[in-house]
Amino acid sequence: MRDATRGYTVWAGLGVAGMLLAACVDPDERRPGLWLSGEEASQPADWSFSDAHREIALEVAAPHLLAHSVTIWCASVDGALYIGARDPDEKRWPGWVEANPRVRLGIEGTLYEAELVRLTDPEAIEVVQEAYRTKYDLPPRRAQDAPPMRYWRVAPRS
Questions:
Q1: Higher pLDDT residue, 50 or 6?
Q2: What is the pTM of this model?
Q3: 33: burial class by Cβ within 10 Å (0-12, 13-18, 19+)?
Q4: DSSP state letter for 32
Q5: Amino acid 24: pLDDT
Q6: Cβ neighbours of residue 67 under 8 Å, at least 6 residues apart?
Q7: Residue 50 in contact with residue 135, Cβ under 8 Å?
Q8: Can you give the pLDDT at residue 2?
Q9: What are phi and psi of 144, to 5 degrees?
Q10: Domain ranges (residues) in the chain
Q11: Is the pLDDT of residue 19 over 50?
């Protein structure tokens, strides 16, 4: 009888874990998710439509064989899409992007395969920061008062 109870407990635990896993696919606000759900689409030539969305979803490849997804802010500049990470050294996903820049973006249930290209040019970064300030109505900050940021341009997968 004891073995039957143990077997039931294992299967019940696996069932609960499976339901939790299925319920936690897409990220939500501050809760990360796993694989994004939605309909695949080809990457648009002009990403300016993304400015109508406060947050988008980003799915990155994590080293533990599960996808990892988060919600992030984004901004477009001249039709190109940019994403950023505040305090990037305190989060795991920016490092995972550095190791594998192939990502998926989710916007209103549509998925786009992309590759992230890190911005390093200070002038390009300033243009993106201005787009963020405009979109999110952020106050200007002195460089020494601003939190650490890392930005990427969304590009087609190579």
A1: 50
A2: 0.80
A3: buried
A4: -
A5: 47
A6: 34, 35, 36, 59, 60, 61
A7: no
A8: 59
A9: -70, -15
A10: 26-155
A11: no
